[in-house]
Design brief:
Elements lengths: L1 H13 L11 E7 L9 H13 L4 E7 L19 E4 L10 H12 L3 E5 L10 H7 L13 E6 L2 E5 L12 E7 L13 E7 L6 E2 L4 E8 L10 E10 L2 E6 L5 H4 L2 H16 L45
Parallel strand pairs: 1-2, 1-3, 3-4, 4-12
Antiparallel strand pairs: 5-6, 5-9, 7-8, 7-10, 10-11, 11-12
The chain binds zinc ion.
The site of zinc ion has 6 residues, from loops.
Length: about 325
C-alpha cells in the first residue's frame, strides 16, 4: 500500500497535479445557473470544472449559482471582491441581469479582477457592450456584424473580417487539432505547439470588438464539417482595464471537458487570470499532435449521454 501510494504521489507530482507546497489559495468564484438549452448542462459540467481547479491544490473554489429565468434578482448581489477570479459557466440573455449587477461586475474586472470564459459563456449578453469587450468575441443570441468583426488567423497574423453575417457556428462534434500561435505566454509555455483535442464543438465565425485581445491558439474549421475554412480562435487572452481575461472556446459537454489539453489550459488560464503568472508545470500526459489524452477520473458517468442529442446544430439555432 505504501509503495502504491508513493508511486501515485510521484506520478501525480511529475504530472504537475500535486504542488510541492501551497501558499494561500487563489479564491475562485465559479458562476453558473443558466444556459440557453439542455445541451449545455451546467448542473453536470460545473462539478467537473470545480474539480479540475481543486486538483491543482492552488485554488479554493466557491460555486455561485445565479437565479434562474423568472428568479428574483433583487437580492442577487455576489461579493465579487472576495475573489481573484470569476470563472463563468453561465449563458443568459441581456435582460437577465439588472444594470446595477452588470456595472458591479464591470467595476470588478476593470479594477483588476480576473475573468475566465468557458465555451457558451461567450454566447451570453449579446448587447452588453462591456461584457463583449471582456470576452472579445461571441456568438449566437442574434449577434451579427453589428457585434464586430469575425477574427481568424491567416498567414501568421490575426485577420478581422467584416463581411455581414450571423455570428457563431459549428459542425458535428469531432476531435480537432489545436495550434498554439503564441508559445511564450505563461498559459501555453512548455506545452506542445500542436495537440489533438477530443470530440467537441469547434466554434467558428465568432464576432466581437476584439480589443486588447491576443489569440493564443487556433483550430482549423473544416468546410467538410460545416466549418468556415479558417483557423478559428480557440484560446484567447484579453485585458479589460486592469483585469485579465482567459477565454476558452472549448468545453461543450462532459466528453469535451475530459481532454488533458482542455484541463491544463483551463487550470493555467484561471491561475493567469487571477495572478498574471502560471506556476503549474506541463503534465506528462498532455496530448500530442496526433493523439488525444483523457484522464479516467474525469470520465463521464458510465450511463452518460450528451444532453440534447448527437449532432450539433447549425448557425440558425438560438444558442450553442
Ligand atoms: Zn456547446
Amino acid at each position: 500500500m505504501k509503495t502504491r501510494m508513493s508511486g501515485w504521489l510521484l506520478a501525480a507530482a511529475a504530472a504537475g497535479a500535486v504542488p510541492m507546497w501551497a501558499a494561500s489559495p487563489i479564491r475562485v468564484m465559479l458562476l453558473d445557473g443558466e444556459q440557453a438549452g439542455a445541451y449545455h448542462a451546467w448542473q453536470e459540467t460545473s462539478p467537473y470544472l470545480k474539480r479540475m481547479l481543486g486538483d491543482t491544490g492552488i485554488f479554493q473554489v466557491d460555486v455561485v449559482t445565479a437565479p434562474p429565468k423568472d428568479g428574483d434578482y433583487s437580492t442577487f448581489k455576489p461579493d465579487w471582491s472576495k475573489y481573484q477570479v470569476v470563472v463563468s459557466n453561465y449563458d443568459a440573455p441581456d435582460e437577465r441581469w439588472p444594470d446595477s449587477l452588470k456595472s458591479s461586475f464591470e467595476q470588478y474586472v476593470r479594477n483588476g479582477g480576473g475573468f475566465v470564459v468557458v465555451h457558451a459563456a461567450d454566447n451570453a449578453f449579446p448587447h452588453w457592450r462591456e461584457y463583449n469587450l471582456m470576452i472579445g468575441v461571441g456568438g449566437w443570441r442574434g449577434r451579427n456584424e453589428e457585434a464586430g468583426a469575425h477574427f481568424y488567423y491567416e498567414d501568421g497574423k490575426v485577420v478581422a473580417e467584416t463581411t455581414p453575417g450571423n455570428a457563431g457556428m459549428h459542425g458535428a462534434r469531432l476531435p480537432f487539432k489545436v495550434v498554439d500561435r503564441v508559445t511564450d505566454h505563461p498559459i501555453t509555455a512548455g506545452l506542445p505547439k500542436e495537440w489533438l483535442h477530443v470530440a467537441d464543438e469547434l466554434y467558428g465565425n465568432m464576432r466581437g470588438p476584439g480589443e486588447n485581445m491576443t489569440v493564443l491558439a487556433t483550430a482549423y474549421s473544416d468546410k467538410g464539417n460545416r466549418g468556415t475554412g479558417h483557423d478559428e480562435p480557440i484560446l484567447l487572452v484579453l485585458t479589460y482595464g486592469k483585469g485579465r481575461i482567459f477565454h476558452t472556446l472549448m468545453g461543450h459537454d462532459l466528453a469535451a471537458l475530459n481532454c488533458v489539453g482542455f484541463i491544463t489550459t483551463f487550470q493555467r488560464g484561471t491561475e493567469w487570470a487571477a495572478t498574471g503568472k502560471v506556476t503549474q508545470k506541463a503534465p506528462a500526459d498532455f496530448p500530442t499532435a496526433d493523439k488525444t489524452s483523457t484522464r479516467a477520473e474525469y470520465n463521464p458517468p458510465a450511463d452518460w449521454v450528451s444532453p440534447g442529442g448527437g449532432r450539433g446544430r447549425g448557425p440558425t439555432a438560438p444558442g450553442k
